[in-house]
From TrEMBL:
<protein>
    <recommendedName>
        <fullName>tRNA uridine(34) hydroxylase</fullName>
        <ecNumber>1.14.-.-</ecNumber>
    </recommendedName>
</protein>
<comment type="similarity">
    <text>Belongs to the TrhO family.</text>
</comment>
<keyword id="KW-0560">Oxidoreductase</keyword>
<keyword id="KW-0819">tRNA processing</keyword>
<dbReference type="InterPro" id="IPR036873">
    <property type="entry name" value="Rhodanese-like_dom_sf"/>
</dbReference>
<comment type="function">
    <text>Catalyzes oxygen-dependent 5-hydroxyuridine (ho5U) modification at position 34 in tRNAs.</text>
</comment>
<dbReference type="InterPro" id="IPR001763">
    <property type="entry name" value="Rhodanese-like_dom"/>
</dbReference>
<dbReference type="InterPro" id="IPR040503">
    <property type="entry name" value="TRHO_N"/>
</dbReference>
<dbReference type="Pfam" id="PF00581">
    <property type="entry name" value="Rhodanese"/>
</dbReference>
<dbReference type="InterPro" id="IPR022111">
    <property type="entry name" value="Rhodanese_C"/>
</dbReference>
<dbReference type="Pfam" id="PF17773">
    <property type="entry name" value="UPF0176_N"/>
</dbReference>
<dbReference type="InterPro" id="IPR020936">
    <property type="entry name" value="TrhO"/>
</dbReference>
<dbReference type="Pfam" id="PF12368">
    <property type="entry name" value="Rhodanese_C"/>
</dbReference>
<feature type="domain" description="Rhodanese">
    <location>
        <begin position="122"/>
        <end position="215"/>
    </location>
</feature>
């Protein structure tokens, strides 16, 4: 058993004073030595953190002890160490940015638990619709799912026409942890789609609880691991190396900071080309050192997770991480 855990969660529950709660939550994470990123918004919480098993247990117990978050569901994975380099707790207008005029607390798609989804997804009247960004579904998606060429969920309205002909079908939306689908499925209902469902807990929970059957490739995650395996039943690789075309699920950032292209690159090409996506990138004078992972966090030499609670000239500092 590994000694660290990664927690992924969200909950839509009103927070009256997000700024005050951000301070309280930040302090809680410091006390428990957690790293990761958490969004606090008037509509609720969205977070993913890593820490020692005991610290994660205390964190989950603390959130569930708060009546506002008693119903929070955690996706829990094991890891050998922290999957984040820093801690960032910040206030935003939404816990997932959509700009949709929908309220998941009032209306959303029917939640399908992982095992129900596994049995329901092959119904001939069912259509799976991926609500993630293009770089995410390029490395892994459900077999036969419809995907959109969008950078973020805000672009969903521009792609609704691609599924207009499926209004008589049962639409099941899915995403990494379920949070995008709360709003995406609500938006589909607002657009007149009648039979709308969502995979509760997303791809991650489906893999943990139902074996991940028929998820092809790997699942993109927003931490140092970049991608994680989901399917333990009938796994296949769907993405290919950007340079040589060999099947691979290894996703990296180009070692050239000017390029920073997010690509799949096999181990051989990574080693041969120093983690770059093109020969021209090798000439970048600021080329980063490729260590085999292709993950480049911001420089952390002077970073301390407690700096957000220190004052300088009377100003409260915030702790920040890259890649949010």
């Amino acid at each position: 058993m590994k000694s660290y855990r990664v927690l992924l969660y969200y909950i839509y529950s009103p927070i009256e004073n997000p700024d005050q709660y951000r301070e309280e939550h930040h302090l809680l994470c410091l006390q428990l030595n957690l790293l990761g990123r958490i969004i606090v918004a008037p509509e609720g919480l969205n977070g993913t953190v890593s820490g020692l098993t005991a610290d994660c247990e205390r964190y989950m117990a603390s959130l569930r002890a708060d009546p506002r978050f008693a119903g929070v569901a955690f996706k829990i994975d094991e890891t050998d160490g922290h999957t984040f380099q820093k801690l960032h707790v910040r206030v935003k207008a939404e816990i997932v940015h959509s700009e949709f005029s929908v309220d998941p607390l009032r209306q959303t798609g029917i939640h399908l638990e992982p095992e129900d989804f596994r049995q329901f997804k092959n119904d001939p009247d069912v259509v799976l619709v991926d609500m993630r960004s293009n770089y995410e579904h390029e490395v892994g998606k459900f077999k036969g799912a419809i995907t959109f060429n969008m950078e973020n969920l805000r672009e969903l309205p521009d792609h609704i026409h691609e599924i207009e002909h499926l209004r008589d079908k049962k639409i099941i939306t899915y995403c990494t942890g379920g949070i995008k689908c709360e709003k995406a499925s609500a938006y589909l209902l607002a657009q007149g789609f009648e039979n709308v469902y969502q995979l509760h807990g997303g791809i991650i929970r489906y893999g943990l609880e139902a074996g991940g059957e028929d998820f092809d490739g790997e699942c993109y995650v927003f931490d140092n691991r970049v991608t994680v395996p989901i399917n333990h039943v009938n796994p296949v690789t769907v993405s290919v190396c950007y340079r040589c075309g060999t099947p691979t699920s290894r996703m990296i950032n180009c070692a050239s900071p000017v390029c920073n292209n997010h690509i799949t690159l096999c181990e051989n090409c990574g080693d041969e080309h120093g983690g770059t996506c093109a020969d021209v990138c090798k000439q970048d004078p600021n080329l980063r050192t490729y260590d085999g992972t292709g993950y480049y966090g911001k420089l952390t030499q002077s970073y301390s997770p407690v700096q957000g609670f220190k004052s300088r000239q009377g100003q409260r500092l915030d702790v920040s991480i890259g890649g949010m």
